[in-house]
Amino acid sequence: MFDRLVENLGRASVAGDAAQIRNPETQLAAAMLLYAVLPADNVIRPEESFELRLTLQRLLRVGDVQAQHLISRAVSAYSREPSLLACATILKHRFTLGFRNSLFEAARRIAAADGQIHVNEADVLSRITSLLGLNAMPHRLSA
After folding, report:
1. In terms of residue numbers, what domain contains 49?
2. In-domain check, residue 4
3. Within its chain, how far is the Cα of 56 from the centroid?
4. Is 3 part of a structural domain of the chain?
5. Which of 92, 75, 87 lies closest to 38, judged by CA?
6. pTM reported for the whole predicted model
7. Torsion 14-1-126-10 (CA) sign
8. Fewer CB within 10 Å, N- or C-terminus of the chain?
9. What's 22's domain CATH number?
10. pLDDT at residue 122 in the model
């Protein structure tokens, strides 16, 4: 699936974030990017999973069932291809800087949902910052 997503990068996005938010491919890319934070510290805690579900509902404007379906698809895609490059590239090319900053802040909240940001989670957050083309801001990583 991500091969098809990367192929689609050739067409430039002139539509706003609202149109991209409804796009199933970009929804999956966002869900996968955000899901990648959960296993970073080798323990997926219920509060992190809950924050992921709420974040998807809020950011992508989907209901609970659709958010859970996106998470299932993201888990499956991540288990096949754990690289964040393809999904981050899609998000970088199709969303505004403002939305990409919102994605990063959401990832940080997910990582901090258990009360701390593990060193491995901080590493994933740093990679997300770079892959999304955001300015590196280490102070943003604190819980």
Report:
1. 17-141
2. no
3. 9
4. no
5. 75
6. 0.81
7. negative
8. C
9. 1.10.3680.10
10. 93
Query: Is position 9 within any domain?
Result: no
Q: Which two tokens stand for residue 52?
A: 């992921």
Contacts of 14 (CB under 8 A, 6+ apart): none
Contact between residue 33 and residue 84 where contact means Cβ atoms under 8 Å apart: yes
Return per-residue pLDDT of the chain as tens, 143 residues.
544 544 444 333 434 777 778 888 999 999 999 999 999 988 888 999 999 999 999 999 999 999 999 999 999 999 998 889 999 999 999 998 989 999 999 999 999 999 989 999 999 999 999 999 997 555 455 54
Q: Which two tokens stand for residue 34?
A: 């955000």
Number of structural domains (the chain) is 1
Residues 6+ away with beta carbon under 8 Å from 62: 27, 56, 70
